[in-house]
Write a structure and sequence with these properties.
It is built from 9 helices and 4 strands. It is mainly alpha-helical.
Length: 215
């Protein structure tokens, strides 16, 4: 939310961005700038800057509530491409888990790490709709639990039961508010491009035909 004096400070920030060219400015939770009494003034500042800037800048922004994002900002030459960052796919979840497990267990630094394909499938099924941050926390939780159970000097070795136990202790965003998250997903997917590849991968989970199950 833009607070008192925020618009003036933002103008100063844009001047600094222009002075630092070439650069890639990134605005996080950009939709929150358009809530409050100064939202109209702020919109005018950013529109003017986008239309008139001559600096070499490529501007990125993230938003959770697309309905708060003024449509004027989505015209050509402004924020004219919209990408939806979905929950990680099964293949992406494997990469994220393996990357963070490798911080504690060297076996995860090569190949498929310490798990068999069947074990990977088991944890990937349990982590569907988990964010990247939640997957990282699962690895940390698993490593921490192993650390307290081993003797001094022993290496940390993360096994499937450790990951499954850690997953059971993590309360996910989707688990807390599935309807709200699904609503955001549906709105975004209606007009946004996917941010990641949809190419098939051996660890992709099979899609179920819900209509066939009902029949």
């Amino acid at each position: 939310m833009v607070k008192s004096g925020g618009v003036a400070k933002f103008k100063q920030l844009l001047d600094r961005i222009d002075a630092c060219e070439p650069c890639i400015p990134y605005f996080d939770e950009f939709d929150k700038f358009f809530i409050g009494e100064q939202s109209g003034e702020f919109l005018g500042v950013i529109l003017t800057w986008l239309n008139e800037k001559t600096s070499q800048t490529l501007v990125f922004a993230t938003a959770n509530r697309l309905e708060k994002f003024p449509p004027e900002l989505t015209r050509a030459g402004r924020f004219d491409r919209t990408f939806y960052v979905d929950f990680p796919s099964a293949a992406e979840r494997k990469e994220i888990l393996q990357l963070h497990c490798a911080r504690f267990d060297d076996r995860y630094k090569t190949g498929d790490g310490a798990l068999t394909p069947r074990e990977w499938t088991s944890i990937l099924e349990r982590t569907e709709k988990c964010t990247g941050a939640e997957l990282a926390q699962i690895a940390i939780e698993a490593a921490t639990s192993v650390f307290y159970e081993i003797s001094e000097g022993e290496p940390i070795q993360i096994a499937l039961p450790d990951l499954l136990a850690a997953r059971s202790r993590i309360h996910t965003l989707f688990g807390r508010n599935p309807e709200g998250v699904a609503a955001i997903e549906n709105r975004a997917k209606a007009f946004a491009e996917p941010a990641s590849s949809k190419l098939p991968h051996p660890f992709d989970l099979p899609e179920e035909d819900l209509y066939a199950l009902i029949n």
